[in-house]
Amino acid sequence: MNKPESKPQLKHGRVISPPSRSAIATDEGLILDWQANEMEGGKNFPSLTAGPFPRPYETDNVSLVPPADDYILSGGKTDARDCVNFTNEEMSQKLNRPFTWPLLNVDPGQTFHVKWVYTMPHVTRGYSWFITKDGWDPEKRISRAQLEPKSFYDDFYTQVPYYQHAAELKAKIEHEVKLPTGKHGHHVIVLLWVVADTGNAFYQAFDVNFK
């Protein structure tokens, strides 16, 4: 009989550069690496409902229920991973000391480069980028009302159906996006790695300061 695993195996993936909220939470000892790799929830975001992925990708596996408001940054997870949804005040209470999410200094319109590590590289549809609205409230958790209603960039493979192109639809270890212009001060960026052969995406969040 095989010895039972003492903890889940590392799987899926996370951004390792620049530091995401999940990386910071890992450094703070609030979550483990495997949990940072599983910020996983339904991929039809910002929809609230499960169902087919939008055209022309409706032959991809149907989406599970996307994350609820206030739990978006953890992919809907409400266990220890909920900490990535915390406001500065909630984190300060959790850590019993003053805390603010570190800000990455960026310029409006600059290229934002990310690097991932994958421990289970799924057949990938692509990557979708969201950002908070002007005037969003950092003293509240991230909800759909706090985010711009549409992604500011989608980086999707166009081959369909995915099961005829699985070898081509590879997760990208490194990729980049041009950040929006006209933003100022603190914003939160939400990056989704959208998977073609499951109903989920993997959610990563970054706190940035537009100079």
TrEMBL record:
The keyword Oxidoreductase applies. It comes from the Bacteria. Coiled coil: none annotated. GO terms for molecular function: monooxygenase activity. Residues 1-20 are annotated as: Disordered. Residues 12-208 form the Chitin-binding type-4 domain. CDD domains: LPMO_AA10. Keywords: Monooxygenase, Oxidoreductase, Signal. Pfam families: LPMO_10 (PF03067). This is Lytic polysaccharide monooxygenase. It comes from Pseudomonas farris.
